[in-house]
Amino acid sequence: MVPSAHLDTFARDHLPPREQWPDFLLERPELRYPERLNAAVELLDATIATGHGGRVALRTDAASCTYVELRAQVDRICRVLVEDLALVPGNRVLLRAPNSPMMAACWLAVVKCGLVAVATMPLLRARELVPVIEKARVGAALCDARLKDELLAAQAQCPVLERVLCFDDGDGTVGGWRAGSLEALAATKPADFVGCDTAQDDVALIAFTSGTTGQPKGTMHFHRDVVAMCDLFPRSVLKPGPDDVFCGTPPLAFTFGLGGMLCFPMRVGASTLLLDRSTPDSLLAAIERHRATIVFTAPTFYRQMAMRAKAFDLSSLTKSVSAGEALPDATRQLWKQATGLEMIDGIGATEMIHIFISAAPEDVKRGSIGKAIPGYEARIVDDGMNTVPPGTIGRLAVRGPTGCRYLADDRQRNYVRDGWNLTGDTFSMDEDGYFTYQARSDDMIVSAGYNIAGPEVEAALLTHDAVAEAGVVGVPDAERGMLVKAFVVLKPGHSGDAAMVRALQEHVKATIAPYKYPRAVEFRDALPRTETGKLQRFRLKEA
User: Fold this and answer.
1) Angle formed at CA 281 by CA 278 and CA 285, multiple of 5 degrees
2) pLDDT tens, 133-143?
3) What radius of gyration do the chain's Cα atoms show?
4) What's the whole-model pTM score?
5) List of residues 6+ apart from 115 with CB closer than 8 A
């Protein structure tokens, strides 16, 4: 490891033992980063140095700022962190806000100072924030004023969290900020700050998993990981340029959103539209209004937007990226029919920081996600880590320039084995190297001796005209071991009665192998999802 710039060595001290790390593949020319590397300097200062300073970096419906203007605000915030809060490299800083220019500026400032960003989802409650604060030993927090109540309630339980500084905290005057707010303090500072001379393998962020299992884990990523995620999937699949306008729904606190809504556009001098909160209609309207070219969101949103797309001018849109959960083919085809765009599907993981399997629109093979993107290797293995033949269902193993390093967590041994990251997904791979998703390993349903993938049944249900959403899990059954049960949200105008149950069961039997049909169907008004749109199947199982 390169000598660290961190004076507070907590993050490095709590990395897993080296023998539990995955293998890192860093041989590609674009991944040969210098030993001293600061991700925020690379994304902001270096982008300005290449001539993009006058371009719009961040935009909202209310305002926009250029790269030069963004750097000035970032540098002022850096001075607040160092001079007013007396933070030193390696200290952890919690960030709590919806997607906004100040949230983006705060993330960049924390990383530029050599601090460790711990971004949290806006909707987390105090009891969910407490374990994050305690596990990461967070001493300071930057928080959107609208979200401070839950954070202050968590602070009351966490003596380690000494300072909470609020932003976007107007006092009611035009352009005014409440005394003591981050903006008020930053306004008194000069707009210049030399980025911390961090090592490429200093920890830049601790990303906590989004909680689909109910037990979030903290994953540590280096400065080089942040830059590497910008230099692989975008370069080989997305291929953005400085004229692109990115938009979407994933929060910056989610690494899918950190890449798509901030780091990817900044790497090429492009622009990103930050939306506080979106509905399918408001996202479509924003695409039309800002002439957005690239959109990131989850399959559920795409399905809902496809039904409304004809009412909006989406002619500026050139690429649409889906990740966060499995993309049903029915949703892909609906979107393609509505917009003419072939979806870019991808699988990533918080542990891997971003997408590692995908396909460009011209390389899509129907039914599969794609191939391992250049820089990553992936294979399908059995429980003994032996590679299985093409077409065989098994566990997905992947390695590349990024990988899992949990913060002081025994589950590191489960995720990394023989140098490979085991993502917890069940896949198959064909002879051409295309990967097809089956299910999360713990979502495979074994019923009467048959292996049934819940997402496959969900995808079949979604092709029925009456179905808006579907979630499928296995429930205990004395006769079959497990029973396939579907939780279904119907479109308006349809009744969840016995006739609809029979209709859906027969539809599934006619769409996929009959033994996979849901023997139990429960109708719901909504399905439990994380803030990033992932279906929380564990909550359906609990029900």
Assistant:
1) 90
2) 999 999 999 99
3) 23
4) 0.85
5) 81, 87, 89, 90, 91, 92, 93
